[in-house]
Amino acid sequence: MPTSKHLVSATRPALFAAAALLVTTGCTAMESDGLDYEPEKKAVADAKALVRSRSSIILDATGLKATATNGAPHATPCEEVEHGYRIKHFWKIQGPSKPELSAALQRLKEELPKRGWKVYRFEQAKSKNRQMQLDVEETKLHHTVTIEEDFVPTGPDASKWEKQGRDGLLVALDSPCYVDPAYKTGDQ
């Protein structure tokens, strides 16, 4: 969970949008469970804390004074690894204007490499709205993240649900696979 005094509860539309972001943008190399590395042993609670700290780095690097949805990190199985799991964290930065959010995404592209992240992609997303998207990986701990502009559509084709949203930056953070002998599929 991002550290901010201004955390608010995640809205249902924001969570659906984050899930849609992951589906429409494709998965990163870390998403595949055909692993080319040996998963580190780590308790689920410790991995969640680590992911929260990575989210905090991202929020701090935006330079924004903004609110962030309070989406909790959750564990999902690494299918081909016994007691294997990865942590996913979906959340949204919201509040500033569209130009401020676009500037923050550009700032992330420039600032995150200074903090140990490698930029893989910075281009229009393959989503319906074709807004800008940034894909990066933390080089030391191998967390991957997709950050995409999420601006409320205003056109005639926009649904009532879409028009009720708030402009922001969607963040979809994913850890590498870890192993915890106490983890069972279905544990969150």
Short description:
The chain has helices spanning 12-25, 44-62, 98-111, 160-163; strands spanning 7-8, 40-41, 67-69, 74-77, 84-94, 117-124, 132-138, 144-150, 168-174, 178-179. The chain has 188 residues and is α+β, with helices and mostly antiparallel strands.
Structure explained in plain terms:
- The protein is α+β, with helices and mostly antiparallel strands and 188 residues long.
- It has 4 helices and 10 strands; from the N terminus they run βαβαβββαβββαββ.
- Mean pLDDT is 80; it is low at 1-32.
The percent range for strand residues is 25-35%
State mean pLDDT (0 to 100 scale): 80
Distance between the termini: 15 Å
Spans where pLDDT lies below 50 across 5 or more residues: 1-32
Name the helix and strand elements from N-terminus to C-terminus, one letter apiece: EHEHEEEHEEEHEE
The biggest beta sheet, please?
A: 10 strands, mixed
Radius of gyration, in Å, reads 16 Å
Number of strands: 10
What is the approximate shape? Answer: globular
Q: How many DSSP helices?
A: 4
> Which secondary-structure class do the elements indicate?
alpha+beta
> Helix proportion of residues, in percent?
25-40%
List the main descriptive attributes of the protein structure presented here.
alpha+beta, ten-stranded mixed beta sheet, globular, single chain, 188 residues, disordered N terminus
Topology record:
Layout (H helix, E strand, L loop, with lengths): L6 E2 L3 H14 L14 E2 L2 H19 L4 E3 L4 E4 L6 E11 L3 H14 L5 E8 L7 E7 L5 E7 L9 H4 L4 E7 L3 E2 L9
Parallel strand pairs: 1-3, 2-10
Antiparallel strand pairs: 3-5, 4-5, 5-9, 5-10, 6-7, 7-8, 8-9
